[in-house]
Amino acid sequence: MALTPIRPHGPVGGGRDLPVPGDGVRLAATRWAGTGPPVVLLHGLASTRRFWNLVVPGLAGLPVVAWDQRGHGDSDAPPTGYDTASVVSDVATALDSLGISRAVVVGHSWGATIALAFAASHPERTLAAVAVDGGVSTPSTRWSRDEAQVALAPPQFAVAPEQLIELIAQGPLAPWWSPDVEEAILPIFGVAADGAARARLDLAHHLEIVDALWDYDPVATMAAITVPTWIVVAQPLTVPDDPAGRAWREDKQTGIELATSTLARPRVVILGGAVHDVPLQWPAAIAGLIRSAVDEIREAGAGG
User: Fold this and answer.
1) Per-residue pLDDT at 58
2) What are the extents of the domains in the chain?
3) pTM score > 0.85 for this model?
4) Which of 32, 135, 158, 162 is most buried as measured by Cβ atoms within 10 A of its Cβ?
């Protein structure tokens, strides 16, 4: 079903939209000019590159690039290729096309998994990795493959755009809601010919990515990473004391322990009071952590 963006808008902060090649796909990207170590921003599952809108101003002066990953946003949606290796290959191909030999690779949620997998498989191209609330665990610790397909399936809806905005504004980001947050989230959705808003990521592709996550091995991945790796953990102050809440807390703690014991150069930051979409909640904090990774590279004399 063809969907058009609810409210199209250009890049923030003087960025330039451009197409870049992935591994056999065309990716819609935005690039910001600057000097120093390049920074690559990878969004999470069912999101788009505009998710980083509020973080980018805090990276002003650095060379930054973000793109819609395959199947997402304005990028191509091929029928196959949603496994982790294919998406990591997209990253390498896109960087080649942009003339970027090495970069600080930043990812949020599923994007953090891709960032860590890229750092593990392309150590010569990774200056540092920043994993924002993702990448250190796998659904296989909590579900069977079939259970994960059900538990992690996205909600299916078709509502008027105004109703969609109202529903999202009342969600976890409600205390931080603003027009800028709205503009960063709306590109995730599109409007069909019937006038209803739906998620732009196709359900089948969403579930293929979930299936690939089930196979992801965070221990082997982190063990292969040699560069400084920032693990940023969003930790709400209150979690329901029920089976789901306890499993969530256990997953978080296990991920932190795995990161500190497995990574060669871990930097673990726990953000108490943060929601999962912390780049929209506290963008200045996330930009500051990315700049810390860049500063560490500069102090070490590494290039970009």
Assistant:
1) 98
2) 4-298
3) yes
4) 135
